[in-house]
Specification:
single chain, 458 residues, alpha/beta, Rossmann fold, Helicase, Ruva Protein, domain 3, five-stranded parallel beta sheet, 12 strands
Length: 458
């Protein structure tokens, strides 16, 4: 393609035909170049990068079929339209089997050559549009899920996008609620495994007695209750990506088996006598300092180095306060659409307060705060009064004003956050505690205990 139109290379050993076809196509606005045989065509195609090549199949020195083969072997991508004598359909079919797009039989009328070229051009435009839309969709998925322009976030995104095409194991670190699973999905979506499964498991949410079976599978009769074979998450993710969230919670015995699976690409189901090959890219995530866990001998050093090939650290929301307004407005639009409301405005005073708050629960806490505010606003603008008391800087006990960051008691702030998150999860799941536990990354038993502790039971 050029700024003047579509570039076409006409290849034929008959000067009169080259001249005639060139005039027809030039009158239609195409940019036309010519070659007298296959050898010259290869040279001119390399220099001009035409979009379409019209090529006679029977020429001296180098015929059309041989030229087509060599052109494709050299990486040439132009659409090739074979020109062949009437009745020589078999040769034309051979050309299409070797990579030609279409053929036209000689002698042909001007309208015929214009039509076949126009169809080829339209196909190229359609393919270019499809590629552009696919690229746009891929970027939109990433931009819709990960919001912000701060330097810390951009640095993390840059590492994620660079490592995505490679099979290297990735370790994502960051506080709870910073979006570790979102980044893992981003790496998966921008890899060659994007069409294969993405499987996520929270290593701290499954009882230790069941975790090995969940990861590697089990055979029938392997233990009480194993009434049938179970594939396991490694098998479920075969060909794709497995996210091991909160890998720092993995029991020591399972760390050994995970290391073997990563090194050898093989797993052994519980109760099984043989191994099974799996092709899985592992991404690990944790809110712990694994280096410290290694020093304290709570995490195997060899496994740490095996999963920490490329590390991505996600900043806490307080470290990228400039992203809070964009995130708040994004969540407001998203939850308004879910609830069937018009997208609300967020008042300047509310945005300023949101930006000042320290967000100990990070993006997850902000998301819950916006959902709550949207419900309380009832379709109107989200204002300061609709924000949670802790965000407003009020004491949860007596309502006395308090600066958002003046209460430095970790215990009080964590309890406020934890209670608020549990309330939001129960509200979002209509009181279904099993689903709420899954949202909160807690075991069902731990959630029941906290519900009793905070007096949230009915």
């Amino acid at each position: 393609m050029t700024e003047h139109g579509v570039r076409i290379l006409v290849v034929d050993d008959e000067p009169a035909l080259r001249h005639t076809v060139s005039r027809i196509l030039a009158d239609e606005g195409y940019e036309v170049a010519t070659a007298s045989d296959g050898e010259e065509a290869l040279v001119r195609a390399a220099a001009l990068s035409p979009a379409i090549i019209l090529c006679d199949l029977r020429m001296p020195r180098l015929g059309g079929l041989e030229m087509l083969e060599r052109y494709r072997e050299s990486g040439g991508r132009a659409l090739v339209i074979a020109m062949t004598a009437y009745g020589d359909v078999e040769t034309a079919v051979t050309a299409m089997q070797r990579g030609a797009y279409d053929y036209i039989a000689k002698p042909f009328h001007a309208e015929e050559i214009v039509l076949v070229v126009r169809k080829a051009v339209e196909r190229e435009h359609l393919l270019a549009r499809v590629k552009a839309l696919e690229s746009e969709l891929g970027h939109r998925q990433a931009s819709e899920r990960i919001i912000g322009t701060s330097r810390a976030l951009r640095d993390a995104l840059d590492v994620a996008r660079k490592v995505a095409p490679y099979p290297s194991t990735v370790l994502i670190t960051g506080e709870s609620g910073t979006g570790k699973e979102l980044f893992a999905r981003l790496v998966h979506e921008q890899s060659s495994r994007a069409a294969a499964p993405f499987v996520a498991v929270n290593c701290g949410a499954i009882p230790e007695s069941l975790l090995e079976s969940e990861l590697f599978g089990h055979t029938r009769g392997a233990f009480t209750g194993a009434v049938s074979d179970h594939a396991g998450l490694f098998t479920d993710a075969d060909g794709g990506t497995l996210l091991l969230d909160e890998i720092g919670e993995l029991p020591h015995a399972l760390q050994v088996k995970l290391l073997r699976a990563l090194q050898e690409g093989e797993i052994r189901p519980v109760g099984g006598s043989g191994t099974r090959h799996v092709d899985v890219r592992v991404i690990a995530a944790t809110n712990r300092d694994l280096a410290e866990e290694v020093a304290s001998r709570r995490f195997r050093e060899d496994l740490f180095y095996r999963i920490n090939v490329v590390s991505i650290h996600l900043p806490a929301l307080r470290e990228r306060a400039e992203d809070v307004p964009d995130l708040a407005q994004h969540f407001a639009r998203r939850y308004a659409a879910r609830l069937g409301m018009p997208a609300p405005a967020v008042t300047p005073s509310a945005l300023a307060t949101l930006a000042r708050y320290s967000w100990p629960g990070n993006v997850r806490e902000l998301e819950n705060a916006i959902e709550r505010a949207l419900v309380l606003a009832g379709g109107g603008p989200l204002d300061l009064a609709h924000l949670p008391p802790a965000v407003q800087g009020k004491s949860s006990r007596n309502g006395a004003p308090r600066s958002a960051d003046s209460d430095l008691s970790v215990k009080r702030r964590v309890r406020q956050l934890e209670r608020g998150l549990i309330e939001s999860a129960l509200a979002r799941t209509a009181g279904n505690r099993t689903q709420a536990a899954r949202l909160l990354d807690l075991s069902h038993r731990a959630l029941l205990y906290k519900i009793r502790e905070y007096g949230l039971g009915s």
